[in-house]
Amino acid sequence: MHGTPFTVAFLGPLGTYSHQAAYDRFGNTVGYYECKTITEVFNAIASKAVQAGVIPQENSIYGTVIETYDALRKQNVGFIRGEIVLKVQHCLLVRGGVKPEEIQCIKSHEQALGQCRGFLTKNFPNASLEKMASTAAAAEAILTSPKCAAICSKLCATLFNGLEILYEGIQDQNSNFTRFHVLTATQDVELPPPAYPAPSQTHGLVRLTARRDVTPRAPPINQILAALDLTVSRLDRRPQLDSPFPFCDVYFAELEKGDSSASWHSAVEDAMKRVKALGVEAELLGLW
Ligand SMILES: O=C(O)C(=O)Cc1ccccc1
């Protein structure tokens, strides 16, 4: 008898950077499940329609992927189990034969539009910019919008018949990397081993919520970080949507293991206990 094949959700369609990142990690050992938005990837994991998902998290030029952190504010959002870093080289694609001077609009994912802002301002100051759900969705859309171009990967020129590359390497810095998270519904879902040697666990993500409606004298973030007393390698902040007070935030502290030989999991659990003793909510969103 065959079990359910291990299936990985990603922001589709085929040809997105998320697809490439997922393939780099899982290769042809798993089934794939295309989603239309990043939020849909989170939903597919939470509803157990898939066993894992790949989510873009940050880019070295344009920074945080906002939709990802907004989703990470929810309860039972899944658990981060790994990361994939992908080198990103953007191309400008058009329908075959379209000249640069004919381009009136440029479509892509907001991250890609942001990563190429300098190029777009210099070369297409009058074109309108249209945010799409993904880079490959933009490539697909220009098949039926001849006056538009798409920012996407070179791979899309092969995947979508009738498109050609007008410019290559158009992002504002030659060095451009996106980091993706591998998510499962819970910590105990068994992941297929990566083709490369699995790195030992050195990262953690903790969500920190100081609730002024519950604890009016909620401590400021510097006191919360001092109580964590671990290396915080990255800190993100998004508005707390259900707070009756304006300008209350949720913080996401990415932790990095130091030299200590103690168990990383228990070091993070102990740090969370110190934070909770201040009356602050601390939830573990990932260990990898
Ligand atoms: O739209 C895509 O291809 C994605 O996977 C999101 C994204 C967009 C731009 C750079 C990295 C990831």
UniProtKB/TrEMBL annotation:
Gene3D superfamilies linked to this entry: Periplasmic binding protein-like II (3.40.190.10)
Domain Prephenate dehydratase positions: 7-185
Source organism superkingdom: Eukaryota
Keywords of this entry: Amino-acid biosynthesis, Aromatic amino acid biosynthesis, Lyase, Phenylalanine biosynthesis
Protein's pathway: Amino-acid biosynthesis; L-phenylalanine biosynthesis; phenylpyruvate from prephenate: step 1/1
GO cellular component, one term: cytoplasm
Pfam families: PDT
Entry EC no(s): 4.2.1.51
KW Amino-acid biosynthesis (keyword) present: yes
One GO biological process term: L-phenylalanine biosynthetic process
One of the record's GO molecular function terms: prephenate dehydratase activity
Record-linked PANTHER family: PREPHENATE DEHYDRATASE P PROTEIN, PREPHENATE DEHYDRATASE-RELATED
Listed name of the protein: prephenate dehydratase
Organism in which the protein naturally occurs: Mycena sanguinolenta
Native organism taxonomy: Eukaryota, Fungi, Dikarya, Basidiomycota, Agaricomycotina
